[in-house]
Specification:
CATH superfamily of the largest domain: P-loop containing nucleotide triphosphate hydrolases
Number of domains: 3
Bound molecules: adenosine-5'-triphosphate, magnesium ion
Number of helices: 18
Order of helices and strands: EHEHEHEHEHHEHEHHEHEEEHHEHHHHHH
CATH architecture of the largest domain: 3-Layer(aba) Sandwich
Helix content: 40-55%
Largest sheet: 5 strands, parallel
Distance between the termini: 54 Å
CATH topology of the largest domain: Rossmann fold
Strand content: 5-15%
Structural class: alpha/beta
Number of strands: 12
């Protein structure tokens, strides 16, 4: 669309500022406002669509993509704020600028809560709207860049699959890995949370003859018991209500590689017999299917419980336990190989500082002494999380650590003295930030949910909740 050279604000400049990658939807019931916005934005954007109600806008959005919506608040039918709420609930992640003639603080706050990026008052002039669009565009660019970077970081973290540490515990583990990696037998990894079970599983895979095949991790605790059989083994068309077509299971996806059954202790008893048969016969039968599928993969299972205790308690089949533990690797808790702490700290700083885009951290002798006497209930993951947090903050930050058994009032230079208070405050703020979701909070804190619950219960709070 051509813009008018009579309006001084839209006079063509030598280089017209613009966002040629952006599609914009403008929604206003005032035709004059629509014309003005289209005239201003069309020469600067890839595409501008106009609509005169939320309903019309929604109809267009059903079949098209918008990076930005400029939305009038008072519309006939659904109001701008109400539609915005709906849009966000439906997962619209683009930018939204709300415009209104009636300025009141409450509306502005409600709009921002509903997920608006910006809020402009009518009447406004061209530079104002251009500036708002510019900021939205910049925000989107940063968000995307961040997404790509984060993925690169995770990939990087995955690539470095080697175990750090020279203690005898880690050296023994390395030797076992070496011995076990080449054979295709099933492996059982046992160890507390955060001791490196997944890392070892990936290393076993990377050193196996199927290293070029897929590594497929499955969290047995995360799949619902009703679905887990078909998730693992796939199903035939019509196997159950809703199975409108055949579907492959995770075993299929892991063909030629490694299937990593994490948290195996959580596998429902009913599936355990089927899993045992699959491992023994090297074949599976998808749910409702007549056909057997031969398996060409290795199964690695992991648990942070002692499976023998689960067997004794009747929660885990003994025959499956015996089958899994043909090769049984015990991962040591970090408190049993504290000698590796300096090397691990150095490794995490080196690994994460460039990825986070921060300066590496230097650690004083006092700080290291503290790290060495602490007992690390969350094991290496807790240490890793501490280093990550500290890199971001630019200083070793122990506020989220549990007081070591040697006493919670450790007074060391430069560190907060009352760890118990700091710890409590930190845990509560993390819990608050995830609306009391203990599973999430435990993940963020780098400890098991059980540890977190025990902690909260110690303060006399109720340990119920999600
Ligand atoms: N010896 C080690 N050297 C380097 N990194 C390690 C080592 N042990 C653990 N890590 C790192 O610590 C973190 C936690 O390890 P991992 O996820 O493998 O633990 P896990 O035993 O699977 O825990 P969970 O039972 O909670 O799932 C990972 O980032 C992992 O890379
Ligand atoms: Mg794990």
């Amino acid at each position: 669309m051509n813009h008018s050279p009579t309006d001084p604000d839209t006079l063509p400049q030598r280089t017209l500022e613009g966002w040629p990658d952006w599609s914009v939807l403008v929604v206003d019931d005032e035709q004059g406002m629509l014309n003005f916005l289209v005239k201003t934005l069309a020469p600067r954007c890839h595409f501008v669509m106009s609509a005169s109600s939320a309903e019309e806008g929604a109809q267009w959005l059903a079949g098209h993509h918008a990076d930005l919506i400029i939305l009038d608040i008072s519309l006939p039918g659904t109001s701008g704020v109400a539609w915005l709420k709906e849009l966000r609930e439906q997962g619209f992640t683009g930018e939204v600028i709300l415009i209104t003639a009636f300025a009141d603080l409450e509306t502005a706050i409600e709009a921002l809560r509903a997920g608006a990026s910006d809020f402009i008052l009518k009447p406004f002039r061209v530079p104002q709207i251009l500036n708002a669009v510019k900021q939205c565009h910049e925000r989107t660019r940063l968000r995307r860049e961040n997404f790509v970077l984060k993925r690169a970081v995770t990939r990087e973290a995955r690539r470095s699959t080697s175990l750090v540490g020279a203690s005898s515990a880690i050296q023994d583990l390395r030797q076992s890995i070496e011995r076990v990696a080449a054979v295709s037998s099933t492996v059982l990894l046992q160890g507390e949370s955060g001791t490196g079970k997944e890392l070892v599983a990936r290393e076993l895979h990377a050193r196996s003859v199927r290293a070029s095949g897929p590594f497929v991790p499955v969290n047995c605790a995360a799949v619902s018991p009703e679905l887990i059989e078909s998730e693992l083994f796939g199903h035939a068309k019509g196997a159950f209500t809703g199975a409108t077509r055949a579907r492959d299971g995770l075993f299929h996806y892991a063909q030629g590689g490694t299937l990593f059954l994490d948290e195996i202790a959580e596998l429902p008893l009913s599936i355990q017999a089927t899993l045992l048969r699959a491992i023994e016969d090297h074949q599976i039968r998808p749910v409702g299917s007549q056909q057997l599928v031969p398996l060409k993969l290795r199964v690695i299972a992991a648990t942070n419980r002692q499976l023998s205790e689960e067997v004794a308690a009747g929660r885990f089949r003994q025959d499956l336990f015996f089958r899994l533990r043909v090769v049984d690797l015990q991962l040591p808790p970090l408190r049993e190989h504290k000698a590796d702490i300096p090397a691990l700290v150095g490794h995490f700083i080196e690994q994460m500082a460039p990825a986070l885009g921060v300066e590496p951290l230097s650690i004083s002798d006092e700080e290291m002494a503290f790290l060495l006497q602490y007992d690390w209930p969350g094991n290496v993951r807790e240490l890793r999380n501490l280093i990550e947090r500290s890199l971001i903050l630019g200083a070793i930050n122990v506020s989220a650590l549990y007081p070591a058994q040697t006493g919670g009032q450790k007074d060391i230079a430069g560190l907060p003295t009352d760890l118990q208070t700091l710890e409590k405050r930190h845990i509560l703020s993390v819990l608050e930030s995830v609306q009391g979701d203990k599973t999430r909070a435990a993940q963020l804190l780098g400890v098991s949910r059980r540890t977190l619950e025990r902690r909260v219960a110690e303060w006399g709070f109720s340990a119920t909740g999600r």
